[in-house]
Each structure stands twice: as C-alpha cells, then as structure tokens.
C-alpha cells in the first residue's frame, strides 16, 4: 500500500506516502491491533478494547454501554449538562468510533458551535472533554478525509482546527481533559488546551506529526513547552515519541495518572471528582453572594447555579 502511495502523482502521492509512513510508525509504537484514522488495512480497533464496551459487568448484570462502529454525524459530539450535585458541570463527549475520534470537518463545526454556546452560558462552571469511545481520546486530524481534500482546502481546515482548540483554551471556566486512551497529534493538542489533564496509565500521548514531515498545527508547539519545558518539548516533537500515562505524569504533561478500570473510564471519573471540587468557585455569579451569606450564618450554602 505504501508503494502504491509513492507511485501516485504530484502532491497527492506525497501526502499519501507520508500518511502511510505515519500510520506504520505510530502503530508500531502502540502495539498490535492499533490503527490510526484512515488506515487502509487491518482491524479498526484492537479487539480487546472494542469488546470491553460490550462486556457484562461483574456479577452477571446486563451489558454495559456499547459503541456502534457507525454514528450519525449529529451524534459525533455529545454535549451533556449534568444535574443534581453535578449541576454546573458540562461534558463534551467525542463519539467518532469508526474514525478513532479524529477531527473531521463536521466534528470541528460541532465543537465550535458547542464552545460558542458554552462560553456565554453563566450556569456552566466546569467543562470536561472526554471520549465516548473506549480506548481512544482523539487521534488528531482525519487523514482519510484530508487525503481527499484539494491542496487549497488543507490550510483552511488546519486553521479551523487551531481556532477551535484556541476557543477551548480561552473558555472562562476550568476545563479538564480526561484521557482514557489514545491522544495523538491534534488529540493531544486538544488536551493541552485544557487547564488540567488526567489520564489512565494505559493511555498513549504524543505529537507525532514530524513522522509525516509536518509540524503540529493546533498550538502544540506553544502549549507543550509551557507544560513540560522547552528542551523536553523539542525532544518529544522532534522524535514524535509516544508516552504512556506514567511517562506523561513523570514529565509533567498530566496532573494525575490512574490505573484503568474495568469500564475504561478511570480518567473521566477522576476528572468528574475534580470538577465537583471546582463547583463552589463561582465568583462572578449570584451564588457568590449565597456563599458569603452562608459563611456569615454558619450554614451550608444553597447554590442554584445562578
């Protein structure tokens, strides 16, 4: 397949050849069964990870959530406003299982629309970015879609990805990335745009664009050095090295690392715990006054999300 890509004429052939090299290099690092979005051969997801979404819970109860290999475009991003004791927490769940949660034109459009609504919603206090697909956070740009683009379309598409990631970075409330699986290229850049990152020890993270003879285009060259320091960031970008959760914690890329649980959502559970801790911090709202009054009256505050 790589040979066919090399034989293709012009810029398209160059892009296809580079894409094949990136797929082969990254899949070799990640182990058997893994394939990047747009891979031209092999299983789409490691069978053990895919099956985990359907496995029965302990004690023989009904199967846990399942994940379809095909999703309607309107379901590629699920926005959930949590209720009761979690009121004020919003979860952005990426749900493109068939494409490893990679960034398509449609997903970027949906993310932009969701972020635009959230930044002006005074009832939102904390946002969690997660995956609805087991074993995957986000594998970056959808290479299968990109290879079909005209050269004139690629630049604007990358600019849109960068703009959405910047919008997430500029949200006026705390943001948490829950990394329960693969976060490569733009997927890691998305996580870097969040204020806090937590990951499962089994997660894989890296800016792998240099394997395709390009550089990270979604802000990774700026945000990674801020997180872990200039020298180490350059080392990781130049080498396209992929880190697991423990390694990412050791270099300061993430704040917390968890052993993955049976449901495959250990990072999300930790993110939810952190989000609950952040809920009382509502300085620009009416709840601030309720908090001060409750302190004066020596009682528990009765927040209303206003």
Report the radius of gyration as a whole number of Å. 20 Å
Number of strands: 10
Mean pLDDT: 80
Q: Can you list the strand order of the major beta sheet?
A: 1-2-3-5-7-10
Helix fraction, binned, reads 40-55%
**Contiguous helical run count:** 12
GO biological process, one term: fatty acid beta-oxidation
Protein name: Methylglutaconyl-CoA hydratase, mitochondrial isoform X9
GO cellular component, one term: mitochondrion
Family: Belongs to the enoyl-CoA hydratase/isomerase family.
Tell me briefly what this model is.
The chain has helices spanning 2-7, 10-30, 47-52, 105-118, 143-146, 151-169, 186-192, 220-228, 230-239, 245-251, 266-278, 286-297, and strands at 77-81, 89-94, 126-131, 136-138, 175-179, 182-184, 196-200, 204-206, 243-244, 256-258. It is of the alpha/beta class. Helix 4 (105-118) runs parallel beside helix 6 (151-169), helix 6 packs parallel to helix 7 and helix 7 (186-192) packs across helix 8 (220-228).
Description:
One of its GO terms (biological process) is fatty acid beta-oxidation. Belongs to the enoyl-CoA hydratase/isomerase family. This is Methylglutaconyl-CoA hydratase, mitochondrial isoform X9. Pfam families: ECH_1. This protein has a six-stranded mixed β-sheet, with helices on both faces. A four-stranded mixed β-sheet has the order 4-6-8-9. The termini are far apart. By secondary structure, the chain is of the alpha/beta class. The chain has helices at 2-7, 10-30, 47-52, 105-118, 143-146, 151-169, 186-192, 220-228, 230-239, 245-251, 266-278, 286-297, and strands spanning 77-81, 89-94, 126-131, 136-138, 175-179, 182-184, 196-200, 204-206, 243-244, 256-258. It is globular, with a radius of gyration of 20 Å. 42% of the residues lie in helices and 13% in strands. A hairpin with a 7-residue loop joins strand 1 and strand 2. It is built from twelve helices and ten strands. Mean pLDDT is 80; it is low at 1-9 and 32-71.
């Amino acid at each position: 397949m790589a040979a066919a890509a090399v034989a293709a004429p012009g810029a398209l052939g160059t892009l296809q050849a580079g894409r094949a090299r990136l797929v082969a290099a990254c899949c070799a690092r990640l182990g058997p069964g893994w394939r990047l979005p747009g891979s031209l051969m092999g299983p789409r997801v490691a069978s053990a990870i895919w099956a985990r979404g359907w496995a029965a819970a302990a004690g023989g109860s009904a199967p846990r959530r399942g994940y379809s290999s095909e999703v309607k475009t309107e379901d590629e991003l699920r926005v959930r406003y949590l209720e009761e004791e979690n009121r004020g927490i919003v979860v952005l769940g990426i749900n493109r299982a068939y494409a490893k949660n990679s960034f398509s034109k449609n997903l970027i459009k949906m993310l932009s629309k969701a972020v635009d609504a959230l930044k002006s919603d005074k009832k939102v206090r904390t946002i969690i970015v997660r995956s609805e697909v087991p074993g995957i956070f986000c594998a970056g740009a959808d290479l299968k879609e990109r290879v079909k683009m005209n050269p004139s379309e690629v630049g604007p598409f990358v600019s849109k990805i960068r703009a959405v990631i910047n919008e997430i970075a500029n949200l006026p409330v705390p943001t948490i990335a829950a990394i329960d699986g693969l976060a490569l290229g733009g997927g890691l850049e998305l996580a870097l745009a969040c204020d806090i990152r937590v990951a499962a020890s089994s997660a894989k993270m890296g800016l792998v664009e240099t394997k395709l003879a390009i550089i990270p285009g979604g802000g990774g060259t700026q945000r990674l050095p801020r997180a872990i320091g200039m020298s180490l960031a350059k080392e990781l970008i130049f080498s396209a090295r992929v880190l697991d959760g423990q390694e990412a914690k050791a270099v300061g890329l993430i704040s917390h690392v968890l052993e993955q649980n049976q449901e495959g959502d250990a990072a999300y559970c930790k993110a939810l715990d952190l989000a609950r801790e952040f809920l009382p911090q509502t300085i620009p709202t009416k709840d601030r006054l309720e908090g001060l009054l409750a302190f004066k009256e020596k009682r528990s505050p009765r927040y209303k999300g206003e």
